[in-house]
Structures are given as C-alpha cells and as structure tokens.
C-alpha cells in the first residue's frame, strides 16, 4: 500500500510540479499522457500487437490503437481476439451521435460527415461479390462496379437507385437511359413477329415521320389511326400496340414500334437485350407513302423499303 501511495505521489508531482505531462516510451511527452511507439500496419489484437496502445480485457483480447509508419501514415483502431478474430467496434453504443469533420454533429443525424472537399465512399464490389453476401439485411447499400450504380437490398432483392442498360425492369430489358438513369427505353424480351408488313394493306401517306426518343409512340398511334381496319390483318404497329406482359403482378401495356432513331439505339445494345435474329426489323418512321425505314440487325445499316415487305418486329416502351 505504501509503494502504491508513493507511486501516485510521484506521478502527481511529475505531472503537476515538474513536467505537466507524463510519457511512456518518450522522455519529452507532448500531451498529458503521451504513449509513444513504432508505426506499423494494423493487426488484430492477440498475444502481440503492432499497435502503440492497448485497452485490453485479457492477454489476448482488446482494442489496439496504432499508426502506420509508411504512406499514407494512417491512424488506426482495431478490436479483436487471439490475433485472428476481428470483433465489432461500437461508437456511442448507448445513444448520441457521431461527427466527422465537425465538432457539432447535427442532432437529427446518427452520423454527420461534414466536408466541402471530400465525399463518402460506400463499399465497392461487383455483382459476384454482392451475391456472395449471406443474409444481407434490408437497407444494406453498396456501389456495384458491374453496373456502375448504387444498389440497396430491400429484404428480398437488390435494386438500383438508378436504372442501367441491361436491367430487367418494367416488363423487359433496359437498353437506353438518360437523366442519370431516371428515364430511358425498355425492349420486350422477345420479338413480337418474325414476318409482318408495315402497313395494313393499302399504301397511304400516314405522316408518321417523327424521329428521336419517344417519337415511336406518336408514330405508332398515327399509323394505326391512318390505316384503320383496311384488310383486317395485323401489321407492325398493331402487334406492338397490342402487346402486354405481366411481371411481378404489374401489367405493362404501353408498348410501341420504335422510331428509326430508337431502333438504332436498340441495335447498339442487341447483345445486352438478347434474342435478336440477324435479320431486318421495322421502325415506325415512314419514308414516303409507299416506303418505311427498317434496320438490318446483321450489319447495323438502315434502309427504307416497301411497306408490304415482311420483316421482324420488337416492341419497346419508355419510362
């Protein structure tokens, strides 16, 4: 007891009257308690440690604190056991909030990261690594490097915060996106016909000559309204207009014959969408009273031909 009393007396004297600071591993402590050691890469706590300081609960278990001795000279904290088991590390386990880059974290935020020069990087992995996560909790967020998009697990499946080319969505396969993935075009998963005419039986000047994104929807309506029943047979615009598919309890029925421009966008992603023949496909863009545009999905070239020419058709829809 006397030795313990003298030890505390000596530390009090050293900290108060002489040095103000106490050092372990240094003769010139820079703070009230300065524990100095060698910088090392992180290791899991065990019988030995590469850290400088340990808060332990046994000889092989605790929390080690250290600093790397090489670039980037990062400070680190590691919780663990026996040098092999990395234990969880909790901050504010009983409540409160945590701030990074701020001394006054917002009271409404569990974690407030403040910066004007840096961002937040979530875990980044490809689809294979994502699928290897066992029993992911609902709300888990990653950045998927395969699709270059954020994904969140909803308790049943992974979904993206933006849409991407190749995504199964809206009754088909996404083949074009814009507005940072908020909008785009979807192709049906299979052809609606492998041999069908563009017109309904009579050449007329329909004026379905719009082109570009969304133009196919207007063209399809114009073609059907202009052709009427004619000979009663289906034609390219009608098989797209009448197509519908139910996925996940939702019935999608707003399909149309793509415009010349949209058809080329579809050709550029034909491998991603799949199921295309190396054949000709109709667009909804008219060239003249007797001709309409189509695209050769073998060589990618676009041509116009007689409207009674029978070729393939693939419906699309917009979102």
Description:
With 319 residues, this protein is of the alpha+beta class. The protein has three domains: 17-69, no CATH class; 98-161, Seminal Fluid Protein  PDC-109 (Domain B); 171-318, Mannose-Binding Protein A, Chain A (Roll), CATH 3.10.100. It has helices spanning 2-18, 127-131, 215-227, 236-241, 260-268, 270-273; strands at 22-24, 33-35, 53-58, 61-67, 75-81, 85-86, 98-100, 111-113, 124-125, 141-144, 149-153, 158-160, 168-169, 172-178, 183-187, 193-196, 245-247, 250-252, 280-286, 291-296, 302-306, 311-313, 316-318. Strand 4 and strand 5 (75-81) form a beta hairpin. The protein is rod-shaped. Residues 1-17 have low confidence and may be disordered.
- Rg over C-alpha atoms, rounded to the nearest angstrom: 34 Å
Mean pLDDT: 92
Q: Might you state the CATH topology name of the largest domain?
A: Mannose-Binding Protein A, Chain A
Order of strands in the sheet with most strands: 3-4-5-6
Shape: rod-shaped
Tally of discrete structural domains: 3
Instruction: Describe the main β-sheet briefly.
Output: 4 strands, antiparallel
* Total number of beta strands: 23
Tell me what the CATH architecture of the largest domain is.
Roll
Instruction: Determine the strand fraction and express it as a percent band.
Output: 25-35%
Oligomer: single chain
Q: Give the SSE string.
A: HEEEEEEEEEHEEEEEEEHHEEHHEEEEE
The secondary-structure class comes to alpha+beta
Q: How helical, in percent, are the residues? A: 10-25%
Task: Identify low-pLDDT runs.
Answer: 1-17
Give the termini separation: 80 Å
The CATH class assignment of the largest domain is: Alpha Beta
Instruction: Specify the number of helices.
Output: 6
């Amino acid at each position: 007891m006397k030795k313990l009393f003298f030890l505390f007396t000596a530390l009090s004297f050293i900290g108060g009257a002489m040095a103000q600071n106490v050092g372990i591993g240094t003769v010139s402590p820079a703070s009230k308690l300065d524990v100095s050691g060698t910088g090392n890469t992180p290791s899991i706590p065990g019988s030995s440690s590469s850290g400088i300081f340990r808060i332990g609960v046994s000889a092989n278990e605790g929390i080690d604190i250290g600093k790397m001795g090489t670039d980037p000279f990062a400070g680190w904290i590691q919780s663990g056991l026996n040098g092999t088991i990395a234990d969880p590390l909790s901050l504010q386990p009983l409540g409160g909030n945590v701030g990074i880059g701020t001394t006054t974290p917002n009271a409404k935020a569990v974690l407030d990261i403040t910066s004007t020069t840096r961002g937040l990087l979530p875990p980044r992995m490809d689809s294979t690594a994502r699928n290897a996560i066992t029993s992911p909790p609902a709300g888990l967020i990653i950045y998927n490097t395969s699709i270059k998009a954020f994904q969140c697990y909803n308790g049943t499946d992974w979904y993206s915060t933006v849409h991407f080319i190749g995504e199964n969505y809206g009754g088909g396969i996404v083949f074009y996106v814009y507005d940072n993935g908020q909008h785009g075009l979807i192709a049906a998963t299979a052809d609606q016909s492998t041999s069908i005419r563009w017109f309904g039986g009579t050449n007329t000047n329909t004026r379905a000559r719009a082109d570009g994104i969304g133009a196919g929807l207007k063209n399809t309506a114009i073609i059907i309204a202009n052709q009427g029943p004619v000979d009663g047979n289906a034609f390219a615009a009608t098989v797209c207009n009448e197509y519908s598919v139910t996925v996940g309890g939702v019935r999608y029925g707003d399909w149309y014959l793509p415009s010349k421009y949209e058809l080329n966008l579809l050709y550029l992603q034909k491998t991603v969408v799949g199921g295309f023949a190396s054949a000709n496909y109709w667009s909804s863009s008219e060239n003249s009273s007797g001709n309409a545009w189509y695209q050769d999905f073998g060589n990618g070239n676009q041509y116009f031909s007689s409207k009674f020419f029978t070729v393939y058709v693939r419906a699309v829809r917009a979102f």
